[in-house]
Amino acid sequence: MRILLQRVSRAEVRVGARVTGAIGRGYVLLVGFKSTDDDAILAWMAEKVLGLRLFPDADDKMNLALADVNGSLLVVSQFTLYGDASRGRRPSFIDAARPELAIPLYERFLSMLREKTPDVRTGEFGAMMDVELVNDGPVTLWLEK
Which of 6, 18, 81, 113 could form a cystine bridge with 28, CB 3.0-4.6 A? Predict the structure, then answer.
C-alpha cells in the first residue's frame, strides 16, 4: 500500500461538475493498493495516518495530530502510485491491484479510518477526478507498507 499524504488548508475532488468530497484543514490522501495488501497493512496505515503529528503547536513545532486540530481527510484512489517508469517511456502498472481487489481494499481502508475519525470524504473509485488543494506548509509525505 502506498499513500501520498498532503497537509492542506482546504481541498476538494470533482468528477465532472459534481463535487464528491471537500474538506477544510486536514490531509489529502492519494492511496494505491497492490494485490498482496491485507487487513493488517490497511490497519497499520490507518493508524499511522491518524497518529502522525504534522500540525504545528503553539511553538510552531509539528506536534499535533489530525484529531488535535479537528482535521478532516479527503481520500482519493490512485492506482498510478504503483506506476513503474524505470524502463522505457510509458509506465507499467503491473504492481497495482486490479479493480476487483482494489475496490474492497479501498472500502475497507475507508471503514477503518471512519471508525477513528468522523470526517472522511472521498473521491470516486475509478473515475476521472480533478483534485484541487491548497497546501498547508507545504507538508507532503510518502507512506508505504
Answer: 6
What are the angstrom distances between the C-alpha of 103 and each of 1, 9, 11, 57, 144? 13, 28, 23, 37, 18
pTM of the model: 0.95
72 within some domain: yes
CATH of the domain at 56: 3.50.80.10
Which residue in the block uniquely carries the three cell numbers 502498472? 93
Q: Which residues of 60-97 are buried (b: 16+ CB within 10 A; e: fewer)?
A: eeeebbbeeeebbbbbbbbbebbbeeeeeeeeeeebbb
Q: Calculate the CA dihedral of residues 112, 32, 126, 89 and round it to 10 degrees.
A: 180
Q: Annotated catalytic sites, by residue?
A: 78-80
DSSP 79: G
Distance CA(132)–CA(64), nearest Å, equals 24
Average pLDDT over the chain reads 97
- What digits encode the pLDDT tens for the residues 126-144? 999 999 999 999 899 999 9
Q: Average pLDDT for residues 12-24, to the nearest whole number? A: 97
Pairing of strands 72-77, 120-122: parallel
